[in-house]
Amino acid sequence: GREGLSPARLSELDRNTRYQLSRAYRNQAITYAGQPKDQIASLTQALNRLQSIAGETVADQLVWQSRMDRIECYRLRGDLDVASQLIEGANAAPDRYLGQLASEAVRLALAAGQSQAAVNLLESQKDVQSHPELELARIETLVHLAKVTADAGQRTAYQRDAALVASQLAQLHGNYWGLRG
Questions:
Q1: CA distance 178 to 181
Q2: pLDDT score for 9
Q3: Which residue ranges in the chain fall short of pLDDT 50?
Q4: Is 100 in contact with 66 (CB distance < 8 Å)?
């Protein structure tokens, strides 16, 4: 009929719209690599949208995903200390977000130039069930190590390992993740 949407449904649609807009700004920022001013502006827009959702006390799926996205946006913006504090503050995250949280910790270590810390974080997760974001962070770490090593044999080994993880990613988590790998 013509009774319209309930206030609860309107609120839910508003939250979801703000979240999707934040993702659009974050994705736009990623395309601005090499254009720091535009990238920071887009990340700031994303963070403005995420802040209102991530701060909600009802920690549902959208709230937790917003919190994860905030960590990524702060890392991409270069605010590594803020990203680190948000990771530490997410210790109550539901199990389904632990892999994503660990992957952000690895990426944060790489962004801070701490290759060994990234490797150690990955090692500490080896007995945890495989998560696609964590496997992507493993690939990123191996590619990073291949770039910074002076030893040609070691570089080749890192590249081979990254290709292996990428092929396993598709087998374990499907074509979407395989393509991302």
A1: 5
A2: 87
A3: 1
A4: no
Q: What is the pLDDT of residue 60?
A: 83
pLDDT for 25-50, tens place per residue? Answer: 999 999 998 889 999 999 999 999 99
Q: Are 134 and 103 in contact (CB under 8 A)?
A: yes
Secondary structure (H, E, C), the chain:
CCCCCCHHHHHHHHHHHHHHHHHHHHHHHHHCCCCHHHHHHHHHHHHHHHHHHHCCCCCCHHHHHHHHHHHHHHHHHCCHHHHHHHHHCCCCCCHHHHHHHHHHHHHHHHHCCCHHHHHHHHHHCCCCCCCHHHHHHHHHHHHHHHHHCCCHHHHHHHHHHHHHHHHHHHHHHCHHHHHHC
Identity of the amino acid at 83: A
Give the pLDDT confidence score for residue 2 in this predicted structure.
56
Cβ atoms of 4 and 51 within 8 Å: the answer is no
